[in-house]
Amino acid sequence: MTSHRQVLTEDLLDRIRERAPRYDAENAFFDEDLADLKEAGYLRAFVPEELGGAGLTLEEMASEQMRLAAAAPATALAVNMHQVWVGVARVVHARGDSSTDFILSEAAAGEVFGFGVSEAGNDLVLFGSVSEARPDGEGGYSFHGTKIFTSLAPAWTRLGTFGTDSSGDDGPHNVWGFVTRDGGGVETVGEWDTLGMRASQSFSTRLDGAHASADRVVRRIPPGPTMDPFVFGIFANFEILLASVYAGLARRAIEVAVETVKKRRSLKNDAPYAHDPDIRWRLADAAIQLDAVYPQITLLARDVENQADRGALWMPQLSAVKSRATEVALDVVTKTMRAAGGSAYSNDRELSRLYRDVLAGIFHPSDDESVHAAWANALLGPVTPKA
Ligand SMILES: Cc1cc2nc3c(=O)[nH]c(=O)nc-3n(C[C@H](O)[C@H](O)[C@H](O)COP(=O)(O)OP(=O)(O)OC[C@H]3O[C@@H](n4cnc5c(N)ncnc54)[C@H](O)[C@@H]3O)c2cc1C
């Protein structure tokens, strides 16, 4: 078994786990966790060593994100957005392109990157935007539009975002750039009062002239699917690291359920429920399901790192790992609730929080519809209109 380098100590994870119920109950941002994670070097852990980081690989970062999610899913989900951008810059850098190296050096210097991509009802996700990117005539762009669910809303200092530039003679283009909070033209709007993942504080973000200078505009590309390393990097890091968050959450749910059934006693059998064959079967079943998710994450992460060629199946397989992990996690957490019994339904129990948090997995891209469409196209080809 490969041994993974770790940045998160057990002591730090214990502190983070202890705070999670309070953040959830108070619907508060994880300020203290973030300060601790910064202090521990976690926000630069994924930056290559030569650029000031700890040089974790994607496989190692996935493993660390699982450990963090097992302590506090909402903290892990929000920090994931920062790690995704660092991962994207690693992919681009590894392919000999320095256009996103500033992400690596700024992350090493302590900047916090938010992910300002999602838009209400936009199922094109990375391939088209209803926000506008207006050229400033000097190679820079200002962004106008509303992004939804910007995790880390109270804390990001850099926001990676995109919009459509329709100003040129060459047709609409997707423009990807990085704006700063200090630079203005950005406002956190709306409410954040959700069922789960409450500490992520993923408010909407209104962009009204947020400016990215020419050296912070990283792509201007036609809309639609592309294997451009920047877009591939988003896809790959997002799907793999997100899968890791939900796998870590599910692993924790099994741990909690195991502890619970060892203490909960059956009157009928005069024994702990841990001896009950039905409960044993149910928890084993949950663990078997989850067991298949780890190698899928690991192998994909290694292939991204090694620049393996999976051809036309790359994108569908990346979508599949996220889909499998989030769907399995949902099922696993449900099984742990059944095994743990009625006390798990109480709001002061960790399992009940995990049950609420895990549901967020179904909303992230690639959602169930898009992963099935991608696989159907890979298997059957596109549906052609009647002649
Ligand atoms: C916990 C969590 C964290 C996430 N973090 C991120 C992140 O950091 N970055 C990111 O890019 N995506 C993030 N996402 C978004 C996510 O991955 C999906 O893109 C999104 O959930 C898909 O939503 P939808 O299309 O189903 O939403 P829709 O149902 O179309 O809309 C969802 C939300 O958008 C709000 N909304 C709609 N219109 C407006 C408007 N005009 N102004 C303001 N708000 C509006 C609605 O109130 C609603 O809450 C997160 C999602 C969740 C659940």
Characterization of this structure:
With 387 residues, this protein is α+β, with helices and mostly antiparallel strands. The chain has 3 domains: 10-108, Acyl-CoA dehydrogenase/oxidase, N-terminal domain (Butyryl-Coa Dehydrogenase, subunit A, domain 1, Orthogonal Bundle), CATH 1.10.540; 113-221, Butyryl-CoA Dehydrogenase, subunit A, domain 2 (Beta Barrel), CATH 2.40.110; 229-380, Butyryl-CoA Dehydrogenase, subunit A, domain 3. Helix content is 47%, strand content 15%. The protein has 11 helices and 10 strands. It has helices spanning 10-26, 31-39, 58-71, 73-94, 101-108, 229-263, 277-291, 293-305, 314-340, 350-358, 368-380; strands at 113-116, 132-135, 141-150, 158-165, 173-180, 186-189, 203-212, 217-221, 265-266, 271-272. The strands form 3 sheets. It has a 4-stranded mixed β-sheet with strand order 1-4-5-8, with helices on one face. It has a 4-stranded antiparallel β-sheet with strand order 2-3-7-6, with no helix packed on it. α4 (73-94) packs antiparallel against α6. The longest helix has 35 residues, at 229-263. The relative contact order is 0.12. The model has no long low-confidence stretch (mean pLDDT 97). Residues 77, 81, 115-118, 120-121, 146, 148-151, 189-190, 197, 200, 202, 204, 360, 363-365 line the site of flavin-adenine dinucleotide (FAD).
